[in-house]
Amino acid sequence: MGGILSLPVLGVAVIYGITGIPNFAIGVIGVFGGFVTWYFLSYSMGLAIAIGVGVCFIIGWIVQRVLLTPISEMGGDATLFFIITIAVGFVFEGMLRAIFPRPNISLELPRIGTISFAGYSVEGFKIIALLFAIGTLIIIRLMEEHTEVGKSWQATSQNLKLAKLIGIKTTQVFSIASGIGCALACIGAIFWGSLYNLQLSSGWDLGFLGFIVAVVGGIGNIWGGLISALIMGMVMSFSGYLLGGEWQSVILYCIVILVLIIAPKGILGSERSL
Amino acid sequence: MSEQVLKVTDLTTCYGSISAIKSISFYALDREIVGIVGPNGAGKTTLLESIAGSVQPLEGIIEFLGHRIEHWSVLKRRQLGLMLIPQEANIFPMMSVKKNLEVSVILSDRDKREELISYAYELFPILYERRKQIASTLSGGQQRMLAVGIGIASNARVMLIDEPSIGLAPKLVTKFFETLKKIRDDTKKTIVLSEQNIKVLNIADRLFGLEAGEIRFDERKENLSRDAVKDLYLGSIS
Q1: Number of folded domains in chain B?
Q2: Nearest-CA distance from B228 to chain A in Å?
Q3: How far is the alpha carbon of A266 from chain B, nearest alpha carbon, in Å?
Q4: Where are the beta strands (DSSP E) in A134-247?
Q5: Quick check: is A30 in a domain?
Q6: How many CB atoms lie within 10 A of CB A150?
């Protein structure tokens, strides 16, 4: 659970960490990409995933470039972004309804089976999802240390005004961050869709859960998000196992509230940095 | 007579309905150090930010190297060679000193980058010593040095510096100003700095007095009495 959750959480963290804009549509956009992948799955699995993820990257880019960046330049506040990104989410959910007239789909990817250790068995996909998230994180870190692009991202996330003044193309950085965030959400949705199933409204679950988990970890803090995703995933699994599925969200959200009362900035603090 | 690299004509910038600067005309010559002096709230920062493009002026003309730039973005102005070092938040706090400088050479020629960073280290050896340290953990004075280092790394033709001496110990101020002068002499760039510290008289070629958003004087240093500058801060008796 935590493994799959870590991908949309990472998406939220990348977008918020760099742009400072909370994008609540990210889950719906990711699920949109999941449906696109499903549509092309009969041709070739690799191609289908590439198309789905690519579509999400482009959507993320465009939404940021034509909508969110201009609004942020005009000084939009958090409430405005909340409403606008929710609206964007409904637009994509509506498009899903119109383009793929099926209430839910299941992505038939080749199963890897379960991996068992220490008496527990874990679905292979969950492990792969987690490794994918960690791998992405390491790549981002390496880029920050060794490439000009990575350094520009980091600079933009730490001091937007100065980043502009020294000549970083911050608009472009924002668009790429948003594209990557949505692409990660899509990969999360693909894993989700192959383990469970994807419904038209799954994007909201994925997006909000991703957001809440990111806030608990310290929003914008990628490591915090990852740790939080693992903890929350375990909480959900165990509460579901011990008390039954219907109590899962009750337990989860009580813990969320508790954590945020104790540590309002999340587990690792919400320094807006990558 | 060297050429005017920067020329501002009748510039007015407002915040809401309040005008922070009113019909300001201003220029800077090639290789000149110009000090913009005036008390708090005189409009010094607004003038610099209007030139750099961080705030949009209401009306007026800004010419830089022969281009009309008042409607250009910050990035485009920067690409042409204009760089503002703001008074606050002028470093990347969670990056190492070294990385702060490395990211700032982004628009400079690839083969000049090393040289620019070495030059910044040469001017401020303490930055080299602390190159691995996270920038926010530097002392206030060191952070100011890093901010100027970022300006050097940017290799801009005209460097606008907003109140570089504020909050520095008096002994440091003198040294800091000498370093700015050295930068101009070494790099043959133009430096425009806003200042409240009267020691700016020691390095500026020309002083531009600003009070309540209006020009009080625009004089070469030789023609200016210390009293005229003092009056600006303390209010003249007459």
Answers
A1: 1
A2: 34
A3: 19
A4: 198-199
A5: yes
A6: 18
Torsion sign, CA atoms A95, A97, A101, A105: positive
Q: How far apart are CA A14 and CA A30, in angstroms?
A: 14
Say whether residue A169 is in contact with chain B using an 8 A CB cutoff. Answer: yes
Distance CA A2, CA A82 (A): 25
Contact present, A134 and A122 (Cβ < 8 Å): no
Q: Which helix (H) or strand (E) holds A76?
A: none
From the first residue on, what is the mean pLDDT of each consecutive set of 10 residues in chain B (238 residues)? 86 86 92 91 91 92 93 93 93 94 90 92 94 93 93 92 88 90 91 88 89 85 76 60
Does the distance separating the beta carbons of B95 and A169 come in below 8 Å?
no
Q: What is the rounded distance in angstroms from the CA atom of residue A143 to the CA atom of residue A158?
A: 16
Residue-number span of the structural domain to which A193 is assigned: 2-262
Rounded-to-integer distance, Cα A65 and Cα A85, Å = 13
Give the Å distances, CA to CA, from B33 to A256, B15, B47, B158, B177: 57, 28, 16, 10, 11
User: Is residue A265 pLDDT above 60, yes or no?
Assistant: yes
A172 to chain B: closest CA residue: B75
pLDDT in tens, B128-161: 999 999 999 999 889 999 999 999 999 899 999 9
Domain count, chain A: 1
CA distance, residue A201 to nearest chain B CA (Å): 39
Pick B56 or A265 by higher pLDDT.
Answer: B56
Residues A77 and A133: their CA atoms lie apart, in Å, by: 30
Residue B28 belongs to some domain of the structure: yes
DSSP B99-156: HHHHHHTTTS-GGGHHHHHHHHHHH-HHHHHTTTSBGGGS-HHHHHHHHHHHHHHTT-
Q: pLDDT digits over B76-93, tens only? A: 999 999 999 999 999 999
Print the domain residue range for B43: 1-80+191-238
In this structure, are residues A266 and A212 in contact, taking their beta carbons and an 8 Å threshold? no
